[in-house]
Amino acid sequence: MGALARATAARPEAAHQASAYGIAERGGPLVALEVPRRAALPDDVVIDIEFCGLCHSDVHSGRGEWGARQLPLVPGHEIVGRVAAVGAEVTGFTVGERVGVGCLVDSCRECDSCKEGLEQFCERGGVGTYSAIDHRTGEYTQGGYSSSIVVNQGYVLHVPESLDPAAAAPLLCAGITTYSPLRHFGARPGSGVGVVGLGGLGHMAVKLAKALGASVTVFTTSASKVEAARALGADTVVVSGDPEAMASARHTLDLIIDTVAAAHDLDPYFATLRRDGTLVQLGLPAEPMPPVNPRPLLGRRLRYTGSPIGGIAETQEMLDFCAEHAVAAEIEVVDAAGLNAAWDRMVAGDVRYRFVLDVSTLPAPAAPAPHVPAPAAPAE
Q1: Which Gene3D superfamilies match (predicted)?
Q2: What is the span of the domain harbouring residue 246?
Q3: Is pLDDT above 90 for 305?
Q4: How many angstroms separate the CA atoms of 224 and 23, rounded?
Q5: Number of domains in the chain
Q6: Which of 182, 185, 216, 322 has the fewest CB atoms found within 10 Å of its own CB?
């Protein structure tokens, strides 16, 4: 409960300073910071953060690889913690309850997508958990590498107590990013699902597809990952550089989840799909992908599409599903002092399969300087 004491020592609903780690200068490392958190509005939930997952998008944003961002920038959108306070109009959340916050903290709530519970497709642009302007409050959002956060109740999730809170944190991004297309495109008993890549997204795709009852084939470029893929539940593992192995997978799959964030040729994977199969792109390469050959698409009525995160209702469904089926991320917990090294290891691919920050290791905000009254003017 250290974060609770630090963030909300006086009145939990009041504005306060949160301890954090973030980027303070362009090109600089993650450093200890303090960020202001607003007083709770009537429909806000104040959360004391326990754990926050580290996503590769944090690195891209923090290091300016997706364009310059306003500084300071506190990353983190895989947040698990406990409710410290609620606004007067909040229903459904109580103080002490374990909750989560994912990639969105608001959206327009008025467009067709928002009304359908598809906030990830908000036509006016959703409000990211960090590095975004909240159009309702005017705040620049700061993320979960911090001791607390204040979020509108419509974007807060219930985290089942049966889930380990650290291992549940990556579900708020990696979990929902893979669950959403698996559900939308019909992964189920009897279907064949392929997973390209075995990183943070890929390992969750394997676990979730198996829990949904599908037969899972993992494609990897590295023979060293064959046993790891099997340990996660893969029924078949194909080293994609082996022509014979790729040929053995021809026309065996209904759905492929492609998690690779480097440019690669998709034609060999299209060959593994049955008629009416779908390849869903989740990885977002920085370099252009090789052109897609339309011939296999036409020949077997294949679909090539993409998918972002899920909406709030679907994310809650995913958390409940994971609790029911004992699905969670494979993680390595790091402390605040190890964040910069963890980012470097993520870039190098040296993690199985997600890092998670233990927020209790953040330094406490500095105590305000005591008030010293000005010396009295000398008597004349």
Answers
A1: Medium-chain alcohol dehydrogenases, catalytic domain, NAD(P)-binding Rossmann-like Domain
A2: 185-306
A3: yes
A4: 35
A5: 2
A6: 185
| Tokens representing residue 364 in the block | 């406490």
- Of 306, 321, 348, the residue at which a domain comes to its end is 306
Going by pLDDT thresholds of 50, 70 and 90, the confidence category of residue 5 is very low
Amino acid at 256: I
DSSP 41-77: PTTEEEEEEEEEEE-HHHHHHHTTBTB---SSB----
d(CA 161, CA 239): 38
> Which CATH number covers residue 326?
3.90.180.10
- Is the whole model's pTM more than 0.90, yes or no? yes
- Angular region, 317: left φ>0, alpha ψ -120 to 50, beta rest: alpha
Residue 149 has pLDDT above 80, yes or no: yes
Judgement on whether residues 163 and 204 belong to the same structural domain of the protein: no
Is residue 177's pLDDT more than 60?
Answer: yes
Both tokens of 173, joined, read 């991004």
List 98's β-bridge partners, or say none.
82
Q: Average the pLDDT over 205-219 and give the result.
A: 98
Say if 59 falls within a structural domain: yes
Burial class (CB in 10 A: 0-12, 13-18, 19+), 144: buried
- The answer to whether 274 touches 254, Cβ cutoff 8 Å, is yes
Q: Where are the alpha helices (DSSP H) in the chain?
A: 2-7, 56-62, 112-115, 165-168, 174-184, 200-211, 226-232, 243-248, 267-270, 294-300, 312-325, 339-347
pLDDT tens sequence across 35-68: 999 999 999 999 999 999 999 999 999 998 888 8
Cα–Cα distance between 287 and 264 in angstroms, integer? 10
